[in-house]
Amino acid sequence: MSLFTWLRPRQIEDSVRQRVAGIPVPAPLNDDTLRRQRWVVLDLETSGLNTNRDQVLSIGAVVIEDGAIDFSQQFERTLYQRDHKLTSSVLIHGLGPSAIAAGCDPAEALLDLMNFVGDSPVLAFHAPFDQRMLTRALKDHLGYRLQHFFFDVAELAPLLNPQITLREAGLDDWTACFGLEAIERHNASADAMVTAELALILFSQARRQQLDSPALLDQQLQRWRRRRHQSHGF
Q: Is the pLDDT of residue 7 over 90?
């Protein structure tokens, strides 16, 4: 493949552009209670951790609504990636060449995902990584700019539990802390589900701390980040 071909923007079909135009516009964070807010909990499995080079291989998502996980609203897709190369990451996510070859067209999968998300804010564990990977995939395959608000569950947990000391804690650490267990780790749907279970515990704690709205929770997160940066001398 020539450098010119690699740099050339992907051609987006007119039918895809029409569907992209119908993707719901994200709603601003509001003062409704956490229980009244619809949340989408997202997890991605990728070919690696390089947000500029690696690819999204599978997507799992579940909805929290009315203060509970809505099992009728679940999303799962494996994406076909034509130029996917087998790497050591397959030992983690288990998505081998046959699974990727049988996957969905990425544009269709991403359109379906964004319609599933709707105008809701997104929750993810280590959300900045998922957000960057999804942003790039949406731009490459749909020419769409992601604008949805992301909350990082990996930040919410220490914010709401300052008495718990877990250095560089991952999803396994926090789920174990609260007695939760994923059915299957590094499976996008299973990880999204256990992240949703963890989020419900954290929302209950937030309510007890008078942080009972998405807007209040975001404001407290911003203050928490500033304090952390100051304490680290940034």
A: no
